[in-house]
């Protein structure tokens, strides 16, 4: 995570008692000719890194359904699943023709990529074996230390006891009734989770795959991933700003009515803000995001998304239990689960809206989504026929977009 989001000196601002299983992605270092990502990195913008240099997705997967133009990469997330012996990546791409394709279905897509080659399988097995060996070494070391302490304790007691042993004789319970019994250890599962991988946050000096300048692109940055934290006191500046605008408009309306003015209806902009404030989902979205305003990614496999509003068709799919997400056509006996979503701050980073030279027209003609939600097959299945000669497969997953003007 970038130091501009928060530093270690500000850790006391966060309430450690409020824990979240959600992982957040923050903008870190830029992607350039010296710092090129690999498939084991999570990043936004730039060019995608395909799972094999000779294995790319089918044209229809990286092409807008509306204008047939190739789409640009929003996010590439390395997201392996525990117990699976393959590398797994989620790609999110979007059409850059905002004027013609914005708010249209098929202008933003999510792709799940898998590589099952023997080299990858062997690599994951070796990593798991190394972790298991390290765990066994630590357990053996602890066991040896416990035995040493126990022996020293027995020698000390024997020296103090003139009878040279237990004055109560043999204990039918296998030891002194006053001995402290060691609780049975519950074996903890060592897993190679998304957090384990993403939290490395160190760009590789030597890329494993070559970048292909084949797609239009946005500014690229590596992401720093960390657990979601909540500030002890987060201000309501964002909502207060909107409330202030509405209060001003209300005062203006009162003045207009007194002056018999015909302007008795909120203007469109203020009406939109008023609807946002009345939407409990948008309020929850705003209240959650203000704790970590720099977030561009939320990852919570099997969890639930943070809805941008509660009024559109996407929101209705997540307001039912279970979620009303279409089942994967390639695996109809399964169902999809929430995996990740992109947050609106990403628009600022992708389109360089922090640049001093940015113009108003660039902002108005740019992206206008509130959040992009990706749901993937619960079984992580890919039909055999989708794999190519390099044991690579790409398949489209469900992608729901809550547009800014849906509020």
Automatic annotation (TrEMBL):
GO terms for biological process: maturation of SSU-rRNA. It comes from the Eukaryota. Residues 158-211, 246-270 are annotated as: Disordered. Residues 161-177 have a biased composition (Low complexity). Residues 279-403 form the Programmed cell death protein 2 C-terminal domain. Transmembrane segments: none annotated. Coiled coil: none annotated. Residues 260-270 have a biased composition (Polar residues). GO terms for cellular component: cytoplasm. Residues 178-193 have a biased composition (Basic and acidic residues). It holds the Pfam family PDCD2_C. PANTHER family: 20S RRNA ACCUMULATION PROTEIN 4. This is Programmed cell death protein 2 C-terminal domain-containing protein. It comes from Candida verbasci.
């Amino acid at each position: 995570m970038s130091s501009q989001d928060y530093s270690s000196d500000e850790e006391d601002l966060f309430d450690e008692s409020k824990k979240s299983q959600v992982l957040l992605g923050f903008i870190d270092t830029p992607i350039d000719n010296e710092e090129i990502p690999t498939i084991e990195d999570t990043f936004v913008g730039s060019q995608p890194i395909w799972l094999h240099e000779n294995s790319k997705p089918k044209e229809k997967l990286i092409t807008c359904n509306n204008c047939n133009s190739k789409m640009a990469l929003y996010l590439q997330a390395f997201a392996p699943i525990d117990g699976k012996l393959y590398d797994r990546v989620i790609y999110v791409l979007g059409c850059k023709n905002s004027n013609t394709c914005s708010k249209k279905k098929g202008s933003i897509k999510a792709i799940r990529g898998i590589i099952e080659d023997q080299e990858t399988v062997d690599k994951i097995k070796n990593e798991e074996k190394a972790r298991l060996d390290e765990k066994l070494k630590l357990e053996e070391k602890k066991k040896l230390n416990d035995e040493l302490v126990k022996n020293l304790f027995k020698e000390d007691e024997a020296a103090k006891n003139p009878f040279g042993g237990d004055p109560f004789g043999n204990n039918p319970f296998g030891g002194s009734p006053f001995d402290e019994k060691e609780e049975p250890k519950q074996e903890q599962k060592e897993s190679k989770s998304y957090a384990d991988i993403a939290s490395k946050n160190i760009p590789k000096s030597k890329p494993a795959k070559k970048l292909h300048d084949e797609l239009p692109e946005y500014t690229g940055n590596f992401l720093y991933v960390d657990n979601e934290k909540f500030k002890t006191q987060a201000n309501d500046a964002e909502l207060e700003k909107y409330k202030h605008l509405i209060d001003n408009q209300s005062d203006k309306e009162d003045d207009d009515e007194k002056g018999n003015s015909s302007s008795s209806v909120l203007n469109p902009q203020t009406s939109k803000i008023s609807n946002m404030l009345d939407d409990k989902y948008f309020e929850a979205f705003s209240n959650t995001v203000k704790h970590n305003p720099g977030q561009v990614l939320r990852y919570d496999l099997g969890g639930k998304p943070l809805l941008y509003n509660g009024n559109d068709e996407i929101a209705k799919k997540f307001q039912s239990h279970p979620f009303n997400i279409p089942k994967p056509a390639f695996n109809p006996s399964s169902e999809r689960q929430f995996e990740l979503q992109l947050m609106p701050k990403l628009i600022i980073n992708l389109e360089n809206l922090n640049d001093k030279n940015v113009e108003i027209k660039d902002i108005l003609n740019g992206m206008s989504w509130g959040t992009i939600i990706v749901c993937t097959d619960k079984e992580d299945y890919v039909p055999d026929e989708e794999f190519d000669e390099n044991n690579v497969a790409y398949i489209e997953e469900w992608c729901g977009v809550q547009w800014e003007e849906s509020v």
